[in-house]
Design goal:
heterodimer, A: alpha+beta, 3 helices, B: alpha+beta, seven-stranded mixed sheet, 19 helices
């Protein structure tokens, strides 16, 4: 009973996220031109998928992954997405987050970013990667952030069914009050196709 | 009466208004640079300078005299004569400076009232001396003997006036006034009447034309400043339509900053005309600034967007390599980044990014630019969110919150904000030497938060100040932003020596970190200097054009702008909030 109610809520949320996502992608696509046509097509595809029935949305929730982090308290995230963006001559950026598009972000929310020379997500499977992690459990709560000198290391363990499984291997997060605490956690993130 | 002299001596006019925390309980000492501590000479009307110096000199003499008389306590006829002469001169010359719309007049009038009260006190003590009645008879006789000669001089003065020689007429009557004042100080008011009445009649005749003359000088100065502004606007608009490339845009940036300074100068000076024209009241504010082109800034901003679009349409792809395309694109982006820092307008920044995207497309860099934005935008968003939250968690209140809570006039307390405030700026409501200790007590040593931080260009050692749209601006030299934030942002934004950023937000982020520009700074207010709003705005050095954002005219000075002050404060920052990173200054 409890599960089905939360699934319904998440389904509604997913539809909302997908709607925002389309609008934002369309705007960006329009402004950048040809290269973004592919993205616009992808955005339409995602939107179509996400706006179908509740049953399909339920499947989508599962597909969107999840994450559980432990900071000063345990935080569960209803979705996780991972993608790699490659910029010519500058290597790639790995992004892991609890939302697909920033315009559709809700709380709790997290974001991890790391620079990597790797060109594909597949090649990162089984590797460790260090970067910056932000976590915000509620709109009113402080944002926790890893300091530049103490990056968070993720263990990217395996890829199954289009999802990356992994955990936080080590990391320390700081808050506005100057408090610093260790962070641990696991995630299963839906792999999104960044423009490569 | 005793109290008056005591207060004058207690207030032996503070030299400077730079007061350190250690000086909280004591008065600041004069410094050679600022012997009288006034609100400064705006200097828009050229003739004001000489008059300004003359008033300062008279005040210096009055200080010395009041100090001397408080010591030996027994004034003689010479003291009386001198004091009458000086107080008379001070009042007359302040009226002249008022026509030149000098803000220091407001403070000087409060001081003149003090000197007047001191004069009455000195006079009553003098009357009590046995010498007083002997002096009285002597002076009446002297004045009576000179009556005929003065009558001729009056006629001559009126003739000058008829002939249109009003400056000469003023000099002539001034001379007679000084003669009478310098000897009649010992007399009772009833004794003076026969000698003063004919003199005041001529003074009145001369005053009208002279007021018109000085007001005209002020209007001419205003017109000259407006013409200069018009010229700068024309030059800028010409460059906006005919310029090209990054160099052309750089020229526009420079011209806009110069025009911005001149616009602030004109706006502040025009705001002083209200009390003279009678066209405006406290409720409506000065009417004149409305004559400045209101949509000017919007026009410039949209022209710059068009400029970038025009560049996009004019890209010649023959022989264009990827490297040269990147170089040309980033050169334009770099000028825009500086402009967005100075203009502080998020909506305009978004519009500029769109026009840059068009330019990227022309240079066939759209894929690079698109991916770069995907790789950096969300990270910057989280960085900004965290920096804002961490700064908000600091306990320091905005300096204006502290100042308005502590320094609003009520009951018997006279502060620097009016009870029913018409403007955001502090107002001068008592003589500065009386106001300074109050402000020291309420503000110095307090921990406060500033507004936007920008670098001062061209200073010998690196310095920063904050924007001044609430009348406060902070100056400080300790800024770790560049050291702390730059390496983090360079890594975040995938920037190396030969790889520049590919989005406007990233370029502006790096530039702001390089120069130490930030959102807020928090720390201890250690000292301050009071300045006239008009004085400051009409005298902003070229390197400090960002004292107010490009396009902003700053606070709206309601009523007579001469009454308003600004506080330049020294800050010892304990933290600085860069747009994307919170920096503790502790290390």
């Amino acid at each position: 009973m409890k599960l089905s109610r939360s699934v319904s809520c998440l389904a509604a949320l997913t539809i909302l996220l997908a709607a925002c996502s389309k609008e934002q992608r369309d705007q960006l696509a329009e402004s950048v031109g040809n290269a973004s046509d592919k993205v616009a097509a992808k955005a339409q595809e995602v939107t179509k998928q996400a706006t179908e029935s509740v049953q399909q949305a339920k499947e989508q929730v599962v597909a969107d992954g999840e994450a559980k982090f432990k900071l000063d308290k345990e935080i569960a995230f209803g979705a996780s997405f991972i993608n790699l963006v490659t910029i010519k001559d500058r290597g790639s950026v790995l992004q892991l987050r609890s939302y697909s598009e920033s315009a559709g972000e809700s709380f709790p929310s997290y974001f991890f970013q790391a620079n990597t020379p790797s060109g594909t997500i597949n090649a990162l499977s089984g590797q460790s990667i260090s970067g910056t992690l932000f976590v915000k459990s509620d709109a009113k709560d402080t944002t926790w952030m890893s300091a530049a000198e103490q990056p968070v290391t993720l263990a990217l363990e395996s890829i199954t069914d289009g999802k990356m499984k992994g955990r936080i291997a080590s990391g320390q997060l700081a808050s506005a009050s100057g408090q610093s605490i260790p962070v641990t956690g696991t995630f299963e993130a839906m792999i999104e196709g960044g423009l490569e | 009466m005793k109290r008056t002299i005591c207060s004058i001596i207690a207030c032996i006019w503070l030299g400077t208004f730079v007061v350190s925390q250690s000086a909280r309980a004591q008065r600041a000492e004069p410094t050679p640079e600022s012997p009288f501590g006034h609100l400064g000479n705006a200097g828009v009307v050229p003739a004001s300078k000489g008059m300004y110096n003359a008033v300062a000199k008279v005040e210096e003499s009055l200080q010395e005299l009041t100090k001397k008389l408080s010591k030996d306590g027994t004034p003689d006829s010479k003291d009386m004569a001198k004091m009458y002469l000086l107080v008379g001169q001070l009042n007359r010359w302040l009226a002249f400076l008022d026509h030149y719309r000098e803000p220091a007049v407001v403070d000087w009038r409060f001081r003149a009232a003090f000197y007047h009260r001191a004069l009455l006190d000195v006079r009553s003590r003098y009357y009590a001396t046995p010498q007083a009645s002997k002096d009285r008879e002597k002076v009446i006789k002297l004045l009576a003997n000179g009556q005929a000669a003065r009558g001729k001089a009056f006629m001559k003065t009126l003739k000058m006036l008829q002939d249109g020689e009003i400056k000469q007429a003023e000099n002539s009557i001034e001379k007679i006034q000084s003669e009478i004042l310098s000897i009649s100080g010992v007399l009772h008011d009833t004794d003076k009447e026969p000698f003063y009445t004919p003199m005041n009649k001529v003074v009145g005749e001369v005053a009208g034309p002279m007021s018109n003359f000085r007001n005209r000088e002020a209007r001419d100065a205003e017109q000259a400043e407006r013409s200069k502004l018009d010229e700068l606007i024309n030059q800028l608009e010409e460059s906006l339509t005919s310029g090209s490339g990054a160099e052309g845009l750089q020229k526009i940036s420079k011209q806009w900053q110069l025009m911005h300074l001149q616009r602030l100068r004109v706006y502040a000076f025009v705001s002083t005309s209200a009390s003279h024209s009678g066209e405006s009241s406290v409720a409506t504010g000065p009417a004149a600034p409305a004559n400045l082109p209101d949509d000017l800034t919007a026009r410039i901003k949209s022209s710059i967007i068009d400029y970038v679009k025009r560049e996009a349409g004019n890209v010649n792809r023959d022989g264009l390599t990827r490297d040269s395309a990147l170089q040309s694109f980033q050169a334009i982006q770099s000028v825009l980044a500086e402009l967005t820092l100075r203009a502080d307008d998020a909506a305009w920044e978004d519009a500029l990014q769109k026009s840059l995207n068009e330019l990227a497309k022309s240079y066939q860099l759209n894929s690079d630019v698109y991916n770069y934005q995907l790789a950096t935008k969300d990270l910057l968003r989280w960085r900004q969110r965290t920096a804002e939250e961490w700064a908000s968690a600091q306990s320091e209140p905005l300096v204006t919150s502290v100042a308005t809570a502590e320094l609003t006039t009520k009951d018997n307390f006279v502060g620097m904000y009016e009870q029913n405030r018409q403007a955001t700026l502090p107002v001068i409501m008592k003589a500065l030497p009386d106001l300074i200790p109050t402000v020291v007590e309420k503000l110095v040593g307090k921990s406060v938060k500033s507004s936007k931080v920008l670098p001062i260009d061209g200073s010998e050692k690196p310095q920063w100040y904050t924007q001044a749209d609430d009348g406060f601006y902070f100056v400080f030299s300790n800024n770790r932003v560049s050291k702390v934030v730059l390496p983090i942002l360079r890594k975040d934004l995938l920037v190396e020596s030969n790889k520049a950023p590919l989005s406007l937000a990233a370029a502006a982020a790096l530039l702001s970190a390089e120069v130490g520009a930030s959102e807020h700074a928090g720390g201890k207010l250690t000292s301050f200097t009071l300045e006239g709003y008009v004085t400051r705005m009409t005298n902003i050095p070229e390197g400090q054009s960002s004292l107010l954002p490009l396009g902003s005219l700053g606070p709206d000075p309601r009523g007579d702008a001469k009454r308003y002050m600004m506080l330049q404060c020294q800050l010892e920052p304990t933290w600085i909030q860069h747009k994307y990173y919170f920096v503790s200054q502790a290390k």
